[in-house]
Each structure stands twice: as structure tokens, then as C-alpha cells.
Amino acid sequence: MPWSNQNGGGGPWGGGGGNNQGPWGQGPNRPRGGRGGPPDLEDIIRRGQDQLRNIVPGGFNGGVAVIIAAVLVVFWLFQCIYIVQPDERGVELRFGQPKEEISTPGLHFHLWPMETVEIVKVTVQQQNIGSTSASSSTGLMLSGDQNILNVEFSVFFTVIDPKAYLFNVENPAETLQQVAESAMREIIGRRPAQDAFRNNRQPIETEVAAIVQGTMDRYNAGMAVTAVTIQDVAPPRDVADAFEEVQRAEQDKQRLVEEANQYANQKLGQARGDAAQIREAAAAYKDRVVKEADGEAQRFTAINEEYSKAPEVTRKRLFLETMEQVLKNSKKVVIDEKQGIVPYLPLNEIGKPAQQGG
């Protein structure tokens, strides 16, 4: 190139490119440090020690002791201070013996390690009991009518005495689970399966809660059972189909019984209506006959009084009225022979029915 021979083979700016120099007359940049190698680690440590001697009184050896002591003090203070949340209570122990006072929510201090603290939640807690999984038989129970049920339920409780809860029972949660499961088995064993399915769950839950509370009180566990709730009741999976078939048969039975009761009530109502109608008709007939008899008796009494006043006239009148009633439908004409026969009397027309005018 044109500039390759200028200045003894230097670059275009007059700087020689030989002897490992760049175009500006300087050689390539080299790492700083001795002999062109990486920074010396011993030198860095030595300079750090010098700075530490200037900061820590007594030199490096005394400073390490102070740092260790400071770290230990901070660690001890960290262990001595604890915080109790609003939904918690704390029980301090001195050499394993619980103190009388209960730590309320806030910041507290105790002398660790001579004193320790146990934190307990005092809000409502839930303990789930029973399982519907095929591999677990925790919730399998026998009902009063010899049916196997898989009952899943929950127990809600609060801690009312933290010291009793922590130290009177070894494992409160496990104890509560065992007691609740035993109580549920007892109550389910007294009742038919239908009560647990849908009919009478509320009485079952109430009885179980009372038994669990009484048992935990005898243990002095410091717990208050607030509620027991049955979450699910199902037959074992192996017999679920047969159980559902039995349930359908029970429902059909109840439906037929209800239909029969409805038919019986309908017929019974109809029979009661007919009976009432017959009783009313009989009462009406009785009243009519009694009144007719009373009327006949009064008539007879009146006739008897008139007869006593004029026997011949009354006897003759009664005879004529009776003969009139007897002979009114007869086609014969009876004439007194003493009176004679009137010539123009239409005897042939008397027996014929009267012609209607038209």
C-alpha cells in the first residue's frame, strides 16, 4: 500500500506499527499488577487487614472478639423478643414450667434460653374427620339399620385455656379427632341410615357436639366445641350401586304408600260425606214423622172434643168422610133411595173423566 513504506513501516498517522505498537505509537494494553499477571490475592487480604486495624480498636485480633460478642448479643436479643398476633396467645415456660400469666397480643420479652414460649391460636379452628377416598376407612360407620356409611364431617372449636390445651393433653388435635369419630360412630349406630342422609342431620350434629364437649371437658383440654357439621354421607364405593338401588326402592315404596294414603283419604272423605247425608236425611224423616204424629194426635183430640159435644152428628160426618175417601175412585153411583132419582141426572156421564176444554 502507498503508506506501508513510510516511517519505517509505520501506520498512516506516522506511528510505527512495529515492535507490537499500535497506530498511535503505543503498545497494546496490559493487565495492571506485578509482572503483567492477575491481581495478587495476598495483597488484597493484606490491605483489608490494614483497614480493619484502623477501624477496630485493639487491632485485628481484638476486633474479631468484639464482632463475635456483638453477633452473640444480637442473636440472644433476637431469641428473647417474640410477637403475639391478635388471634394468638402465648404461654411462657421457665425451665419447662409454665408461668401463670398468659401473653396477650403484642411485643414481649423473656430470658432465653432459661425461658421459652409456646404460641397457640385462639380463633375458631376446623378439624376435618373422615375421608371418601377408597384407600381410607376413617369415615366408615355402621348405622342402626345395619347399613355401612362413609361419613365425612368437621368439628369447629376454639382454645379457651392455652395452658390446659398445651400441657393437659399430649396431642390435642389427634385426641379431638379420635373423640369426635367415636362420638359420631355412637350416634350413627343408634339411628337409621336415612337420618344421616337427609332427614335428621341436625339432631345428630347436636348430639355429637355435646358428647365431644363433655369428653374434652373431662380431659381438661381447654377447648370449646362450637359446632359439628356433616359434610357428606355416602355408601362405600364397592356397594354404591346396590345402595342406590335400595334407595330407589325405598323412594318407590314411599311414593306408593303416599298414593295409597291419598286414595284412602279420598274414599274416607266420600264415605263420611255419605254418612252425614244419611244422618241428615234420617233426622229430617224423624222430624217429619214426629210432627205428623203430633198433628194426627192433635186432630184426634180435637175430633174427640167435638164428638163429646154432638156424638150423632160427629159420627155421621166421620162416616160420610170415610166413605168419601173410600169410594171417590169408584165408578159406581150410590143414591139414597129415599131421595129418589132425578130424571135429568146424567148417570152415564158421571163415571167418565171430564173433558178438557180445547
UniProtKB/TrEMBL annotation:
Cellular location(s): Membrane
Biased composition (Low complexity): 21-31
Residue runs in coiled coils: 239-266
UniProt cross-references to SMART domains, sorted A to Z: PHB (SM00244)
Keywords in alphabetical order: Coiled coil, Membrane, Transmembrane, Transmembrane helix
Protein's membrane topology: Single-pass membrane protein
InterPro entries for this protein: Band7/mec-2_domain (IPR050710), Band_7 (IPR001107), Band_7/SPFH_dom_sf (IPR036013), HflK (IPR010201), Membrane_HflK_N (IPR020980)
Bilayer-crossing regions: 55-78
GO terms for cellular component: membrane
Superkingdom, natural source: Bacteria
SUPFAM superfamilies: Band 7/SPFH domain
Similarity section: Belongs to the band 7/mec-2 family. HflK subfamily.
Function description: HflC and HflK could encode or regulate a protease.
Listed name of the protein: Protein HflK
Annotated gene: hflK
